[in-house]
Design goal:
Multidrug efflux transporter AcrB transmembrane fold; Alpha-Beta Plaits; Multidrug efflux transporter AcrB TolC docking domain, DN and DC subdomains; 3 domains; four-stranded antiparallel β-sheet; about 55% helix; elongated
Length: about 500
């Protein structure tokens, strides 16, 4: 250790270069680290949610929940399966062994869902969700006024949502509220019974006719033409003219067994904005995206897309996770800076020398910047947990520099030359300094091995504290003795806290 300290004191340019590299890496990481509210919740739990409106909970259990459960039960690594079936909604939860990556779990579940899809009722499309999905909901907007609810929903879904998907970091946009245009078919039960038809016969026929299909290609010399059949039902007249095949080879037109009128698709909730019928849409970010950048990108995109809205329509933001994160980040940064300034004031109060205090204080930002660079290397994010760890680390990282500075100043007071005092003082305290740091790190080390969902929150905290302490130890044994050996720091002290220290010495 003495040879290492002598090398650092004799080569100040190399030490300064390393400090500059660490500081540059920290500044780069500060502007490029992903920003989020909490650490990424990579919990190996996948929810399979299916909607089948109008179906009882018993039928949801038999038709959807059980087939999905039977398929998921055979996936390797599934620790526990649970399900909930209510009217129109089925949820199957698959919990995998801890250590399974969420992306792997989703792929395994998605593969099994693809095989069971053919056994589910027509129109049922299960979707996957994870625990972190809610935290990925970064912004919510409501559009109200101007045009009918049908036109408003169509505009938001086609003109706004599809274009917002081009914003970097956006994973999906979910549109809720508004109305969807529909044809209301009212069947005459007597006519159905007379023609031996069922409701499923009619609904199946309507689905079959309401589609676009490619029939093949037509060759004409050097050209090839696509033959496409478009039988989508656009008007009431089209719907009434649909032939429904009856038993016995006969077919009847829909007009003979039903009446059709224009209307809107049933809805089970309403969205209002400023007291008016409205359409809302939620923006979800990708797991590794920066929340603040995503929300700002969406806001800028919406500012350019306002011209696509119907006349008189207004758009307002009702939820912004970026504001929550920015407020928490600014508050923690303020606390971090105030903690550093108070630490510097206390140091000067007890050390009594401005240059020595400045050297010790300079170790704080260098250590924190080096910690940020290592956070980026370890794949961490800036969130409430890691920023709290950095704030707590301010008072801890300065301890190593203080003990080295006190030892060097004591050797300077004995009349030794600056470089000799720096070398002897740092070498004398290096062992206790390192042991104190390792002891503190050992107290936080168990947090790095904590499992379960609690570990997802606690591990980043323990990692940041440990990295900051190691960085402070390196800075205290390189940067601090090098500056004491190269600057004109004397052993003279005018500490205002000297009487307090003398009183404590007498009392204790």
């Amino acid at each position: 250790m003495r040879k290492f300290l002598a090398l650092t004191i004799a080569n100040p340019i190399a030490v300064i270069l390393l400090v500059v590299i660490a500081a540059w890496g920290g500044i780069f990481a500060l502007f490029h680290l992903p920003v989020g509210l909490f650490p990424g919740l990579d919990v190996p739990v996948v929810n399979v949610i299916s909607h089948y409106p109008g179906v009882s909970s018993e039928d949801m259990e038999l038709l959807i929940t059980r087939p999905i459960e039977d398929r998921l039960r055979g996936i390797p690594g599934v620790q526990r399966l649970s399900s909930t079936s209510i009217e129109g909604v089925s949820q199957v939860t698959a919990q995998f062994d801890w250590g399974t990556r969420l992306t792997d779990a989703r792929q395994l579940v998605q593969a099994e869902i693809g095989t069971v899809q053919s056994f589910l009722p027509a129109g049922v499309r299960p979707r996957l969700e994870s625990i972190g999905t809610t935290l990925q909901e970064v912004a919510g907007y409501v559009v109200y006024g101007g045009g009918s609810p049908v036109d408003l929903r169509t505009t938001v879904r086609i003109d706004l949502a599809s274009r917002l998907m081009n914003v970097q970091g956006v994973s999906r946009v979910e549109v809720i509220g508004g109305d969807e245009a529909a044809f209301i078919v009212r069947l005459r039960t007597a006519a159905l019974a007379h023609n031996h038809l069922t409701i499923d016969d009619v609904s199946g026929t309507l689905r079959k006719y309401n589609q676009v299909a490619a029939s093949g290609f037509l060759d004409r010399g050097s050209r090839e033409y696509l033959i496409r059949g478009d039988s989508r039902l656009r008007t009431i007249k089209d719907v009434l003219a649909v032939p429904v095949a009856a038993h016995g080879g006969k077919s009847v037109l829909l007009r003979d067994i039903a009446t059709v009128s224009p209307g809107r698709a049933p809805r089970h909730y309403q969205v209002h904005g400023n007291g008016l019928p409205a359409v809302a849409f939620m923006v979800f970010k990708q797991p590794s995206a920066n929340t603040i950048d995503v929300v700002h990108g969406v806001d800028q995109k919406l500012a350019r897309l306002k011209a696509l809205l119907p006349a008189g329509a207004r758009i307002r933001k009702f939820y912004d996770q970026a504001d929550i994160i920015s407020e928490a980040r600014d508050s923690l940064f303020h606390d971090l800076i105030m903690g550093a300034l108070l630490a510097a004031a206390v140091l000067f109060f007890f050390m009594g020398t401005f240059r020595a205090t400045l050297i010790v204080t300079a170790a704080i930002p260098i250590t924190l910047l080096a910690t940020l660079a290592m956070m980026r290397a370890f794949g961490q994010t800036l969130n409430v947990i890691t920023l709290s760890a950095l704030t707590l680390a301010v008072g801890m990282v300065v301890d190593d520099a203080i003990v080295v500075a006190e030892s060097v100043v004591r050797h300077l007071q004995s009349g030794k030359e600056r470089q000799a005092a720096s070398l002897n003082g740092a070498a004398e305290i290096a062992g206790p300094d390192a042991s104190g740091t390792f002891t503190t790190v050992a107290a936080f080390a168990p947090l790095l091995f904590l499992g379960g969902i609690a570990g997802l929150f606690v591990r980043p905290f323990g990692l940041v504290i440990s990295v900051a302490l190691f960085a402070s130890l390196i800075v205290s044994l390189t940067f601090v003795p090098m500056l004491f050996g190269r600057t004109g720091v004397s052993g003279q002290r005018h500490a205002m806290g000297a009487p307090l220290l003398a009183w404590l010495d007498r009392v204790l």
